[in-house]
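Hello,

Our lab assistant flagged a job as stuck in the queue for most of the afternoon. It eventually completed. Since we weren't sure the result was trustworthy after the delay, we are filing this so someone can double-check. Below is the sequence as submitted and the structure that was eventually returned. Let us know if re-running is recommended.
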Amino acid sequence: MEKNVGNTDRIIRIIAAIVIAALGIYYQSWWGLLAIVPLATAFMRFCPLYMPLGIKTLCKKEK
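-- returned structure --
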């Protein structure tokens, strides 16, 4: 897997995961489990959806 998620994108994904998880806990809903997706893609630095679209948010110095 080639990295295709940059630092800014990573931070946004982590914040989104925290918000989704918090809302899931607050509303006592299983939808909070969806926080796993942005959290996993942030830590792996790979987004499977970016690959077919040809998107890379990495800076040249991050590679």
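-- support follow-up --
The delay was a queue issue, not a problem with the job. The result is valid. Residues 1-45 form one domain. The chain has a mean pLDDT of 94.
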